[in-house]
Amino acid sequence: MLFSQLGLHAEIQRAVAEQGYDTPTPIQQQAIPAVLAGHDLMATAQTGTGKTAGFTLPILHLLAARPLPQRPAKTPRVLVLTPTRELAIQVEESVQTYGQHLPINSLAVFGGVGINPQIAALRRGVDILVATPGRLLDHVQQKTLDLSGIGIFVLDEADRMLDMGFIRDIRKIIALLPKKRQNLMFSATFSPEIRELAAGLLQQPVSVDVAPRNTAAETVTQRVIETNREQKKELLKHLFATRGLHQALIFARTKHGADALARALDKAGVKAAAIHGDKTQGARTRALGDFKDGKLTALVATDIAARGIDIDALPYVINFELPNVAEDYVHRIGRTGRAGMAGEAISLVCHDERGQLKDIEKLIKRSIERVVIPGFEPAAVAAPRPAPPPRPQHPSRNPPGGRQSQNKPGGPAQHRSGSRHR
Predict the structure, then answer these.
(1) Which end of the chain is more exposed for a tag (fewer CB within 10 A), N or C?
(2) 3-class SS of residue 261
(3) What are the structural domains, with CATH classification, of the chain?
(4) Is residue 98 within 8 Å of 79, Cβ to Cβ?
């Protein structure tokens, strides 16, 4: 099947062709006709399947077929809800790319940046609004946004929404939408909680399941390099020096670890940056843009910060540390090997991570090739972990377990209330 056979608006087909695409991916082949026909949709789709274009293309077609003489201020026609700022930016970029020849405009709203430019754009009128839950509710509360005109609602990466604790915000937002609307829901997995949410949201949906769950694309070559914990940084530098790696997305488990690794690579002559939840939105957007443009060789990310990174031809994903949850391994390596292109996933695994590796292999139902690099062979037994430095004692502070610290600026209670803006 070709894009020209899907019945999309001529100007959308033109934009698709300009991006060099002529054949839709499996999810696009199934989702686009369903959305064009006005059906609700429940789609199981991994990262890298082309799902974003699977809903942006038919939505653009439907809006082009029902033009408005004038855009009402503050009242968008389409709402796309995403879990992270990065994904909101990616989706809105997709709308701009494929809608560039149409008189349709879009806006992404998310926290971590000033709200006033968003308010001004909403006043001018927006057709397609892409938003994270927290900032969307801020606009509703300030009466700078009216959701009464939403005709199509997209809930993207619903599983990650629930993982990040957005379920209450999602229910609040759904309650604000018109009863009569088209609903599209995308999720990498469909747990009982997701199915419960879908049952309350979707009306006689068309179901699309484009890939077996918890599997990586066949075009991704997966390898494990066994080494010692304390040798990982040197091994990673060695790989860049000897294998000519370029545009590698590297996963670290912690924000501190991501920063330290990016600094070590940069010092070794590998242009690198880190992205994680403590970085400002401007810094994250800049780093991602530089990485896409080839100005950075390596981008070091934590799992949540990497959600929504969408690069068509990403050649390498490197797990500097294995994730604690096996499913996250599949999400990570799914960022390479997209749309039939080849990719390589390399995992640096030490003694401490053999349990996680076993869980991953059980999940993906295959064993991953083991490689040992001369000079970086793992020891027969793991070296003991270095003891953390003793924490200084401050007599004036509350003893461990004291409750007063919960209300300090930056304490757990405040962090939870701000997490919705991620």
Answers:
(1) N
(2) helix
(3) 3-209 (3.40.50.300), 220-371 (3.40.50.300)
(4) no
Residue 99 has, within 13 A of its CA and on its CB side, a CA count of 25
Report the C-alpha gap between 277 and 264 in whole angstroms. 20
Structure tokens at 302: 């934590």
Show the tokens assigned to 257: 């670890």
Q: Which of 122-131, 136-145, 244-253 has the lowest mean pLDDT?
A: 244-253
Phi, psi of 23 (to 5 degrees): -120, 125
Rounded to the nearest 10°, the torsion over CA 27, 33, 35, 40 is: -80
Residue 25, sorted as left (phi over 0), alpha (psi -120 to 50) or beta, turns out to be beta
Using one digit for the tens of pLDDT, what is the confidence trace for 284-328? Answer: 888 888 998 889 999 999 877 676 566 767 889 999 999 888 888
Half-sphere exposure of 134 (CA within 13 A, CB side): 19
Q: Read off the amino acid at residue 173.
A: I
- Contact between 251 and 269 under an 8 Å Cβ cutoff? The reply is no
373's tokens: 């690099």
Q: Are 56 and 95 in contact (CB under 8 A)?
A: yes
Indicate the angle between helix axes 26-36 and 51-65, nearest 10 degrees. Answer: 30
In the numeric block, which tokens belong to residue 285? Answer: 């957007």
Band of the pLDDT at 60, cuts 50, 70, 90?
Answer: very high
